[in-house]
Amino acid sequence: MFPILNIGPLAIQTPGLLIIIGIYISILVVEKQSKRYSLNANDVSNLIFLYLISTIIIGRLSYVFQYPSLFFENPVSIFSISPSLFDFTSGLILALLVALIFIQRKKLPLREILDSISLPLLIFLIFLFLALFASGNFYGKPSSLAWSIQLWGTTRHPLQIYYIIGLIPVIAFNIHLSKKRLPPGQLFLKSVFNLAILVVFLDFFNGNPNNLISNVNFLQIIAWLVMVVLVFVNAKARLKEDEVTNLNLSS
Q1: Are 233 and 192 in contact (CB under 8 A)?
Q2: Are 167 and 196 in contact (CB under 8 A)?
Q3: pLDDT tens for residues 17-53?
Q4: Which H or E run contains 33?
Q5: Number of folded domains that form the chain
Q6: Which of 134, 142, 177, 245 sits at 20 to 30 Å (Cα–Cα) from 37?
Q7: Exposure of 59 by Cβ count < 10 A (0-12 exposed, 13-18 middle, 19+ buried)?
């Protein structure tokens, strides 16, 4: 698409630049969100920075383990910031373990922390998909629709743009819910649930054969599992709230 941005004599990798901008803006949003939840802005900023950097490092290592021959041929490419050489799905998931360890060691309130970082992470995803669009990765299935894009030898669904458009109402809903008095952790869980819905619907257009296991999209499977788990978690939380309410009424 537009992997290189030429500014005079400089040739800048557009995808890497977009990811850096996304991290910077996310951290700025974190500083505002932390005040809303009475959290230490430095702790929350450090957490999201650690999570995003861990995502990048783990995503690169995961890609290296999957395609070692690419890096044996060109070892310097291991330091490339091109999104085409990352497994962001593994990075985003496994980086959660790093974030949880940080939260436990700092003894931070987990639910409030999750609520405060939900909006910054959604905003970062916008820049991540912009970076994927710039590099031509995470591409869609072949298509002849009027808005299809020319990519990898054929016209395809602009899957990255679909996700960016889909994230806009998710972000708007997050901002709307943040103004309500939800129980701690609910804002984050609802945002994750909405993201899972987005994956279920939009990844139908994913054209990468590596995402298929026996002709079934594994990202959609993960999204369905996340939705089921969150439904049970939410139901359990409501039962607990009802028990507390009934106990208060009886007393």
Answers
A1: no
A2: no
A3: 888 899 889 888 888 888 888 888 888 888 888 888 8
A4: helix 14-36
A5: 1
A6: 245
A7: buried
